[in-house]
Amino acid sequence: QVFPLVNSIGLNEQELLFLTQSASGPHASLASWSGIPDVGVVSDILFWILKEHGKMAERASDLTRIHFHTLAYHILVTVDGHWGNQAAAVAAGARAAGTQACATDTIDTSKVFLKAPLEFVTSHTEAPSKISLNPDEPVVHWHREGISFHFTPVLVCKDPVRTVGLGDAISAEGLLYSEVYPQ
């Protein structure tokens, strides 16, 4: 009921898993995440949400953007033609996670560590691509049937100071850097 009314949502791994379980989506039999959520599984579920509930020509829905955030990485998923500046937006959300959790104005490399997978596949239900992270270009992009995915690792705070409201801060920061295209 909510998806047709909103343009964008932000959610974490628990919310994503609950959503696919409650609506019998892909990987719905997964009871819980074992460690860092598998990027291919997350990608499959995000793709399903936008394909089944997002804005399409034959569907009255405004949902065109999802910012997924977990401790180790973020993925920004958009229906093509509705949003711009996704690389900067997903990077801004990841930066906000590190700075807010560590209570610093900028990323202090002595206070953070990398927990993201350095290699991953983009799907477990479609023909996957295997992606290797490049530290010089930390935002990677792939495309699937009119939907774009932007992935970036998060520099995780070793000793978190502020975590209350972190998900909201991540989503808001990413949205601040996003460009919406008028339709």
TrEMBL record:
It holds the Pfam family ADP_PFK_GK. It comes from the Eukaryota. GO terms for cellular component: endoplasmic reticulum. Keywords: Glycolysis, Kinase, Magnesium, Metal-binding, Transferase. GO terms for molecular function: ADP-specific glucokinase activity; metal ion binding. GO terms for biological process: glucose metabolic process; glycolytic process. The keyword Endoplasmic reticulum does not apply. InterPro entries: ADP_PFK/GK (IPR007666), Ribokinase-like (IPR029056). Transmembrane segments: none annotated. This is ADPGK glucokinase. It comes from Mystacornis crossleyi. The lineage of its organism: Eukaryota, Metazoa, Chordata, Craniata, Vertebrata.
